[in-house]
Write a structure and sequence with these properties.
By secondary structure, the chain is of the alpha/beta class. The chain is built from 12 helices and 10 strands. The strands form 2 sheets. It has an 8-stranded parallel beta barrel, surrounded by 5 helices.
């Protein structure tokens, strides 16, 4: 499959040239404490994805297989993951997510893109990169774009969100062939612009991160990342943990696609 074909597939994950992905891989990665009340019901989250017309919904194999056919939304299937090390069920030491789904299975389920976490800086990074090579090549053979979660992690990593570490991670992800790089925004505009520069043709989407203190605070991040030239966002908790998730999606789109400021976008929530 030529890269031009992959670029065509990426266009299907965009609205007006920008991307907004709704993520709910947190139940696996973080644990049930993230999924209070109705947010623990996959149908509730899939409905947000469908009604909010996001460009893709990120989840693991089980959710995609059991619920995906019932909803009109693109699936970005996360094919690796790990248990929260802070949980009694998690493992100590540098992270090494298990590969939990093949690309062939993702295609059978109907996925339109593949997601994969790379903990750059982990002592297991050699194996992780070798696993990514197989996933990336298989995905491209099937015509599916690949998003890499780029998270500097490991005992040697003193400052995961330093500009230097994030820029290095961006170039590493690009060099390994990721089409999208899901990355943290550390609050420094210069650093984020350098991530985008190092990503080159790979498209940087901001990781939504923990629930923000306020919707206004989060939308300011959305505004800044958009102004920096970010491709878009992969957001979970700051949408589906909100009391009005569809209004939050519309507010994000106001900023991302229509060029509105935060205060105008906030009117969606009045």
């Amino acid at each position: 499959m030529s890269y031009r074909e992959i670029e065509k597939a990426m266009k299907k994950l965009e609205t007006k040239g920008k991307s907004l992905f709704l993520a709910q891989d947190q139940g696996f990665e973080h644990g049930p404490y993230e999924l209070e009340g109705k947010t623990g019901d996959p149908d509730y989250i899939f409905e947000i994805a469908e009604k909010g017309k996001v460009d893709a919904f990120i989840c693991q194999k089980g959710l995609a297989e059991m619920y995906g056919e019932s909803y009109n939304t693109n699936i970005m299937l996360k094919v690796n993951g790990k248990v929260n090390p802070k949980s009694e069920l998690g493992l100590d030491g540098d992270p090494h997510p298990a590969v939990t789904c093949s690309v062939r299975k993702a295609v059978d389920i109907g996925a339109k893109a593949i997601g994969f976490t790379n903990f750059v800086g982990s002592i297991h990074q050699k194996q992780i990169m070798e696993e990514f090579r197989v996933i990336q090549e298989d995905a491209h053979d099937f015509g599916l774009p690949v998003a890499m979660w780029v998270y500097p992690r490991g005992k040697k990593v003193k400052n995961p969100n330093s500009g230097e570490n994030l820029a290095y991670g961006a170039r590493l992800g690009h060099t390994l062939g990721a089409d999208y790089l899901k990355m943290p925004f550390n609050g420094n505009v210069k650093d984020f612009k350098e991530q985008i520069r190092m990503a080159a043709k790979s498209k940087v989407v901001m990781s939504g991160g923990p629930k923000a203190n306020s919707t206004k605070e989060f939308l300011k991040q959305v505004e800044t990342v958009t102004e920096c030239g970010g491709q878009g966002f992969a957001i979970g908790r700051n949408i589906w943990q909100h009391e009005n998730p569809l209004a939050v999606i519309k507010a994000i789109r106001d900023i991302q696609l229509e060029g509105k400021d935060v205060y105008s976008a906030l009117k969606r929530l009045e």
